[in-house]
Every structure is written in C-alpha cells, then in structure tokens.
Amino acid sequence: MVEVLVPATSANLGPGFDTMGLALGQHDQLMAVITDDPGVRVDIEGEGAGQLPTDDTHLVVQAIAAGLAENGIELPGLLLKCRNTIPQGRGLGSSAAAIIAGLLIARGLIDDGDDRLNDDAVLNIASGMEGHPDNVAAALLGGFTLAWLEDTETHAAARAIRRDVHSRIVPIVAVPSTPLVTAEARSILSDAVSRDAAVFNLARAGALAHALCDQPDLLFVATEDRLHQDARAQAYPNSHRVLRDLRGQGLASTISGAGPSVLTLVAAQEVSSESLPDAIGTAVSVIAKACGDGWMVDAVMVEAQGARMQRRSLGAAST
Questions:
Q1: pTM to 2 decimals?
Q2: Going from the N-terminus, what domains does the chain have, and what CATH number goes with each?
Q3: Which residue from 15, 67, 93, 105 has the highest number of Cβ atoms inside 10 Å of its Cβ?
Q4: Given CA atoms 269, 172, 135, 6 in this order, what sign does their dihedral have?
Q5: DSSP of 77-137, one letter per residue?
C-alpha cells in the first residue's frame, strides 16, 4: 500500500506567469493498493466526488501509468482511494496535485523507486502532463518555487528552485462557487506582449522572489502584473472585481493560477502553526466582505514540505 499527501498550490502570484508557485496548507490524501483483479477502481471522497472519473481515465491513474511506463512497467490492477480537499477548477492546482500524487504513487510501487523515479524525473514527467512546471514544482517541492524549461539535446527539461517563505507571510484564499476551465482562461491571452509590460513584470517578479523570502513589506508592489490578469478579466469578471477592490485597499492580492480564486498574501507578526494574529482575522473579514456571498475565504499556512509518500506493507511503514 502506498499513501501520498499532496498540497494545493497557487501559481503566477501576480507577475510570475507560468514560472512561480506557492504550496498551500490544504491537501489531497490518496492511498493505492495493488490488487489481483485486473483494471482500476477509484473511490473519491470530498471535492470531485460524483464528478471525476472512477476508472483508468482518472488523472491520478494516468500519472501512475506514466511513472510506471517510464520504467518499463505496465499498470497493474489497482484500488485508488482519494480524499480530496483541493477545489476542482478553481486555480488552486488540483490537476497538478493529481499528477504529482500519481507519480509519487508510481515511485512507491516500484522497487528502488526513490532512485528510478527521483524528483528530477517526477518534475519532468509532471511538467509534460501539465503543460508548464509552475504548479507541479510547488506541489512536489513545497514552499516557494521558481520553475522553467531548459532546452537539452533531446527535449525541454523542467528545472526548479525552491526557497523557504518568510515566516511572517500568511496566504488567504478566496474561492468562488463557480469553476473555470484553465484552457479557456489561457486561450484568451495574446501571443505577443508589449516591451513595457514585459519589463514591468520582470522587475516585479524579481522583487516578488525577494519579498516572499526576505522582505514581506514589498509584497504589495511585488505582486503587480501587466501580462495576464487584466487580459483575462472577461473569463472571471467577479474575481477581477474582487482583485481590483482588494488591491485598492492596499492588499497584495492576485488571481490564483488561471483563476477564478483570489490569493492574498498578508505580512503578519508572530505567526505560528497553532495560532494566527488578529490582523489575519481582520484581513479575512475584509476579503470576505469584498467577495460577497458564494465565496469561501480562509487563511492557510504555506506548506513547506511539499508532497509526501509513505509505503506500508504487512503493518510496517517506511517513507
């Protein structure tokens, strides 16, 4: 039996389009067991139950198959149980979490899987399945990640840098009730951008890396964007309204991934996993008021560890 815990993620973070990601303290929990019977059965609890497929077309199963195929192994009979808390189609990395979870399950099922399907291999396969490496890097590695594709002689290899996030930073996620198809949001964007917009975002992206890791006071200016959020406003008009409202109040808010969720990064004092300062509760109230009815607004911690895999056999466990 293989168990995996994988976090939600927020990508782009304003100026870091398709390159920056942040792991969040909200998780999907999965368990896979090889069975003697052929075929795959998927049991789903929580988010996506009754909507996601329960056979080998499920994205987690496709990722398991891809990880096994990379090592010349066919997909065995399998029982997969998913306990999902990451909202589907809300810009919080549900597909990236599914892909990373499946690849780590494949790692757990393979003899010497830690070596044969290491993090570099997982990141490359996941990036190919997802189409870009920002969310999958954060889901795999945790913390704040900067990811890119590097040309080699045979293919474009995914690479990523991981950094710890400053202890004062607390993400607040506002999730609307209506999902958005990522492909729809991406199709709106033009293939060309102005030089001014490119220079603007380059400067903000550099500042954002520094703000997230070393100087949270820069978060507001560092989360400005001129490449994608306004350009996709028609895909998520309510989210764009909330974004403009919150930034007008001085909050470091961004569209989370392709939307429609809104991420706000708050710099607080004396943050711990056991309690959050009153300033965070105040920020949650302000954000909830700006969102109105039909939104879920919660403060979450940054997930520092990323995805975790555990093997269990005959009552014994190893990680």
A1: 0.93
A2: 2-164+304-318 (3.30.230.10), 169-299 (3.30.70.890)
A3: 93
A4: positive
A5: -EEEEEEE-SPTTSSS-HHHHHHHHHHHHHHHHSTTHHHHT-HHHHHHHHHHHHSSSHHHH
